[in-house]
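Hi everyone,

Forwarding the result from last night's run.
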Amino acid sequence: MRKLKIDRQFVQEAVSQDSAQRLLGKIIEISQVMHMSALAEGVESVAQRDLLIGMGCDQFQGYLFARPMPPSMLHDWLRAR
């Protein structure tokens, strides 16, 4: 499936600014209309994740889930979860 990647700046501002939240909602809506998966980057808090879930975003990446790591560490990290 094709993905529409949402820049971290939209995610960060949406928690505290109504206008940014409305814009983020429209971006996610566009992804749905285009039959694309919405991938939000820079998700660092539970509040951001919950807001995105409520808006219909279906994929996330950011420090809330894990810090960047070399491929050699990924297998062990996945096994621990």
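Residues 3-80 form one domain.

Cheers,
N.
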